[in-house]
Recover the amino acids of this structure.
């Protein structure tokens, strides 16, 4: 079956924006503004509750929410007292909320990435639509937070980088109370990640689908891996063909899989690459048909992509986004076609919902919407 792509033009909130044209396909975009004018924060956190309720989060303590499909956005920035101290004094910390999970217009959990030793990494929650944010109880540690994922509104996991980059394991925090408090899962197996880490690029390096957890890591000269677990404690991994930079001791040049998405218990896609200047590669996307036991590189060469999302109820359709463009696959990740040209430097994150609707967020307050019919 052949599909056509178009924007649902009846969304009045976005009609005033500038669509990106490529082969008849359109992203409808509208720059975000607040009381001070144009918003310049970068948004890597994105949670689409419905086509009316969307939450985004990003740099400079930023959280925004719309409950009218993008016609208006509420500025719900998280006011906090986080500081760090060095030999020259004490300074305020500007939190970078790289992941957010919302369960309704009122309930959301936001994750600030960064160095825990500088009080940058933290988790916050609200139950009144962002009027008040409370800092969640979590272990005090110097680890970098990367991504959240949820089994349900009560139980979730948070992925953090290894404590020791040379021989450490990826760390997992767990909540059973909707994000109010978190504890580290002790004694995990199979998460050894020498020279590798996760990527807090879009809040999608962890996922839960069909009774199984998935996460991706990379960054060393060794291949990026996709891990899977049924209980969040005992993990197995499979290699992809995406390798890191052999000229970097521990590979932290940005090479690695950044995002994992599964449609069901069998069909999965991962995307990534290098966020530094690097050529397009077939290895920047891979697909699985056996629940993540094996991975095959895409037949299409993509530049770096930081997020991927299946279109629920639309079979093998999925969308990938990154700082150099967006793509559509019609065959579950085997081949990809462009939704934008490679000069469209806006989006970091993408999430699709039923009805063929996808929302995206990115640099300098960028928000986009497309409907794939």
């Amino acid at each position: 079956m052949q599909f056509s792509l178009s924007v649902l033009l009846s969304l009045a909130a976005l009609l005033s924006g500038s669509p990106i044209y490529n082969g008849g396909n359109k992203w409808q975009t509208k720059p975000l503004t607040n009381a001070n004018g144009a918003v310049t924060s970068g948004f890597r956190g994105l949670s689409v509750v419905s086509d009316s309720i969307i939450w985004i989060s990003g740099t400079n303590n930023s959280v925004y929410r719309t409950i009218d499909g993008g016609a208006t956005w509420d500025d719900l920035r998280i006011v906090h007292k986080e500081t760090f101290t060095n030999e020259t004094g004490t300074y305020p910390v500007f939190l970078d909320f790289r992941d957010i999970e919302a369960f309704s217009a009122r309930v959301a959990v936001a994750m600030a990435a960064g160095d825990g030793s500088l009080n940058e990494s933290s988790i916050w929650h609200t139950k009144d639509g962002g009027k008040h944010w409370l800092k969640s109880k979590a272990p005090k540690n110097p680890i970098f937070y990367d991504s959240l994922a949820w089994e349900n509104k009560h139980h979730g996991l948070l992925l953090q980088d290894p404590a020791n980059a040379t021989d450490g394991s990826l760390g997992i925090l767990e909540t059973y109370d909707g994000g109010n408090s978190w504890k580290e899962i002790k004694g995990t197996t199979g998460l050894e990640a020498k020279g590798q880490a996760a990527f807090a690029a879009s809040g999608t390096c962890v996922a839960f689908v069909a009774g199984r957890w998935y996460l991706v890591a990379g960054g060393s000269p060794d291949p990026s891996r996709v891990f899977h677990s049924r209980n969040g404690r005992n993990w197995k991994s499979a290699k992809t063909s995406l390798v890191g930079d052999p000229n970097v001791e521990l590979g932290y040049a940005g090479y690695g899989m950044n995002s994992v998405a599964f449609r069901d218990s069998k069909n999965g896609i991962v995307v990534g690459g290098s966020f530094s200047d690097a050529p397009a590669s077939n290895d920047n996307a891979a697909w699985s048909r056996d629940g993540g036991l094996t991975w095959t590189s895409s037949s299409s060469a993509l530049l770096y992509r930081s997020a991927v999302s299946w279109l629920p109820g639309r079979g093998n359709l999925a969308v990938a986004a990154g700082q150099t463009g967006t793509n559509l696959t019609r065959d579950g990740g085997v081949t990809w076609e462009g939704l934008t040209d490679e000069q469209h430097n806006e989006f970091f994150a993408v999430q699709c919902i039923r009805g063929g609707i996808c929302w995206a967020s990115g640099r300098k307050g960028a928000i986009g919407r497309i409907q794939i019919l």
Observations:
- Confidence is low (pLDDT under 50) at residues 1-24.
- The radius of gyration is 19 Å.
